[in-house]
Amino acid sequence: MTSHSSLGLDARRAFAEAIAKKAGALALGYFEKRESLVIETKRDPQDVVSIADRDVENLIRDAVHEAYPGDGFLGEEYGLEGGTSGLTWVVDPIDGTSPFVNGMPNWCISIALLHDNVPVVGVIFAPCHGELYAAAVGSGATLNGKSLSLDPSRTIRNSVTGIGANNHVTPAFVAAMVEKLLSAGGNFIRNGSGALMLAYVAAGRLVGYYEPYMHAWDCLAGYCLVKEAGGWYHTFPTDGDRLTKGAPVLAAAPGAVEDLRAIAGI
Questions:
Q1: How far apart are alpha carbons 12 and 120 in whole angstroms?
Q2: How far apart are the C-alpha atoms of 215 and 240, rounded to whole Å?
Q3: Are 39 and 48 in contact (CB under 8 A)?
């Protein structure tokens, strides 16, 4: 991989932090007046979107175009734009739209930067909680400026695992993965935002996160955070059009990797 300094990752991480805060302020304004939002559905009634998602993505996209015009950009709402720099921003403007539109605080802004198929910057901002998670390859991960470092003594049996599910996988598959986790002595939560639960893995609040089908914009920022905090993640396929397709997502603290890989079959 090209060196950290030659990619300007410190500056790009600082940029991502700043724009995540601006995007978060815009999203929070919509959240506070969500009763007036027009809610649309995508694939099914549980897969929702609003003008808030679109406006937040446009804010981030416009900022990237201005600051880094040679970079590519992939957003959940408007898709992929190629670039010339070899770097691609991968953004979920509001991850956890269902909690967002239903008045729950578990949603976030997720901004990742991809280089050579590796997430090299990851920023997740949870406006309702006032929490900014940030990482860059080789520089560690932080929560509101405080360094994050995972405890290797934490396992699925003495901690909680996050899980995600959607209609890309069958109810039977979801039931089986929950049964495997519980049978192995673990327990789980699901808060409606995969990106935020990955940030919680980096912060040591969860010992791992597994979702059998997830998109790049949901996971790449969290992956960078987990890695830089001392954890492990299952590589997301990003070659060619794979970047816009779904894939299994798994990230874990050191003491949970073996168990969760067995549960996920990865």
A1: 10
A2: 14
A3: yes
Q: Please give the structure tokens belonging to residue 259.
A: 């168990």
Supply 45's token pair. 């009634």
Angle between helices 194-202 and 216-228 (to 10 degrees): 0
8-state DSSP, 86: S
Q: What is the pLDDT of residues 161-213, one digit of tens each?
A: 999 988 889 999 999 999 999 999 999 999 999 999 999 999 999 999 999 99
- pTM comes to 0.94
User: Domains in the chain and their CATH numbers?
Assistant: 4-148 (3.30.540.10), 161-264 (3.40.190.80)
Helices 257-264, 171-183: crossing angle, 10 deg rounding: 150
Beta-strand relationship, 131-136 and 140-143: antiparallel
CA 221/CA 74 separation, integer angstroms: 13
Contacts of 146 (CB under 8 A, 6+ apart): none
**How is residue 39 annotated by DSSP?**
P
Tell me the C-alpha distance between 64 and 105, whole Å. 27
Query: Which helix (H) or strand (E) is 177 found in, with range?
Result: helix 171-183
